[in-house]
Amino acid sequence: MPESASRKGAGSTTAIVGVGNIGSALARHLVRGDEAVVLAAKDGSHAEALADELGPLARAASVEDAVAGADAVVFALWLDTIKELIPRLGDLLEDEVVIDPSNPIAFDEKGQTMRTLPERQSAGSVVAALLPPGAQYVKAFGTLGAGALAAGANREPRRAVLFYATDDDGAVTTIERLIRVSGFDPLKVGGVADAGRIEAPGGDLHQFGLNGQLVDLDQARAAVAAERPP
Ligand SMILES: NC(=O)c1ccc[n+]([C@@H]2O[C@H](COP(=O)([O-])OP(=O)(O)OC[C@H]3O[C@@H](n4cnc5c(N)ncnc54)[C@H](OP(=O)(O)O)[C@@H]3O)[C@@H](O)[C@H]2O)c1
Asked: Which residue, judged by its Cα, is nearest atom 35 of ligand 1?
């Protein structure tokens, strides 16, 4: 059995596949909060460099070993990459909490953002539908711009909220723990059907739908309860 596989269930290890803007910010927060992380990227040297920077709680692995050895996996990847990767990983995702920060977004040649899915189809609904039946899907960690995610942890006097959406009650404990360890307060907006509310472009509860603001728990609860714009 590979060393990574033997660690499954033995403690909490979070795999982060993708160590770009979102994956590296999240890895830094989790390690600062004493969470073990295993990092993977397309170019393994990028994962190794971040693991070296983060010290003993972080290690680098191949994508397959990272996923196999973890209790939860964050796909800090572009939506098209996630769509390619999930079928390749197949059974490795059974029984895992799969956390997806992706937004249905791309940039045109002028650097302008454009939507890559039809209006009202969320990236969350696309990714959740690709997973094996035993995987527990959560939309989370993509509700802030990467700079705000990196800078917004452990805010005082009141922590900022990270929203999440899931249909799996069994994933709630895991995602709420990881959000708290990262230095934020968690708030569930609903199930996968509500994932579009926390995606950009267009989500009313994404940072860009909240005028760029980071909100505390009271503000976040009021925003979730507010009537959704048409
Ligand atoms: N950037 C933001 O402000 C922001 C905010 C909210 C949500 N999001 C969402 O978060 C996701 C990641 O965005 P990002 O800005 O962090 O992207 P990014 O900086 O471009 O990083 C992408 C990462 O994906 C890795 N990767 C690409 N193909 C791979 C493969 N086949 N296997 C394993 N790893 C692979 C890359 O590996 P290498 O390092 O080897 O190239 C890189 O580490 C996107 O879905 C985006 O919509 C982004």
From this structure: 42
CA separation for the pair 226, 70 (Å, rounded)? 37
184, 25 in Cβ contact below 8 A?
Answer: no
Distance 79 CA to ligand 1 centre (A): 9
Matching residue, tokens 């197949």: 90
pLDDT in tens, 41-99: 999 999 999 999 999 999 999 999 999 989 999 999 999 999 999 999 989 999 999 99
Ligand 1 atom nearest the C-alpha of 47 is 39
pTM of the model: 0.94
Q: Does residue 145's CB lie within 6 angstroms of at least one atom of ligand 1?
A: yes
Question: Does 20 contact ligand 1 (Cβ within 6 A)?
Answer: yes
